[in-house]
Design goal:
Elements lengths: L4 H19 L18 H19 L18 H16 L8 E4 L4 E4 H23 L7 H11 L27 H8 L22
Antiparallel strand pairs: 1-2
């Protein structure tokens, strides 16, 4: 799937807004729920999402190499509020002129990457984490076909080498993809999620989508 620099920024914006929507559906009693991210409850997952937004915003502004920008917030007593502030920051950073021509320092991925590629990484992260939150809460994920297709194109290029997957790495080991899987299901499985272990009906709105 070929997507221009301007388009990938817009698709990322849509994914971020959907992640915001589902996070803000959480009630006080939900923050301790288990999530598809092994060992993380919903509060910890949203802390991670917040840290990634702040790190990518810093990378867009040329300071992504500084570890402090990638730290999870110390105060997560109001997870949705803290997450929204970080999402607002990264969307503002990504809206700056010339964003996709910049170099992003992404220490967790081992180096620097062209801006367009970095935004693709951010996009797939927030499609998957929006699904993580939706699955945790048992609500539907609403993402259009072009966002799901762009995320799948990234997921298909993530190396599946077992040495780069699992604990301590950015992604869990890839799972097999059944024939006929939709874009969201395939993306989730390629990045180590098994949608069938979670609530039925938590799918993305997209062409050929199956019910996880």
């Amino acid at each position: 799937m070929t997507v221009s620099g301007a388009d990938i920024v817009e698709l990322d914006r849509i994914a971020v807004h959907e992640a915001l929507r589902v996070v803000e559906l959480a009630k006080d009693a939900d923050w301790g729920r288990d999530t598809p991210c092994a060992g993380w409850d919903l509060r910890r997952l949203v802390a991670h999402m917040t840290a990634q937004h702040l790190g990518f915003a810093a990378a867009a502004r040329g300071t992504g190499h500084e570890a402090a920008h990638w730290q999870e917030p110390a105060d997560m007593s109001e997870p949705a509020r803290v997450h929204r502030a970080a999402a607002t920051d990264v969307l503002a950073a990504f809206a700056e002129p010339g964003l996709t021509e910049r170099e992003f320092a992404l220490p967790e991925l081992g180096g620097s990457f062209p801006g367009r590629q970095a935004v693709r990484f951010h996009l797939v992260d927030y499609v998957v984490h929006a699904w993580d939150v939706a699955a945790t809460l048992g609500v539907s994920l609403e993402l259009p076909d072009d966002v799901l297709g762009a995320a799948l194109a990234v997921a298909r290029r993530v190396p599946a080498d077992p040495g780069t997957r699992g604990p301590g790495n950015a992604f869990a080991p890839a799972l097999g993809v059944p024939g006929g899987s939709g874009s969201l299901d395939e993306t989730l499985r390629l990045l180590g999620r098994d949608p069938h272990r979670w609530n039925p009906g938590i799918g993305g709105r997209g062409e050929g989508e199956t019910t996880p």
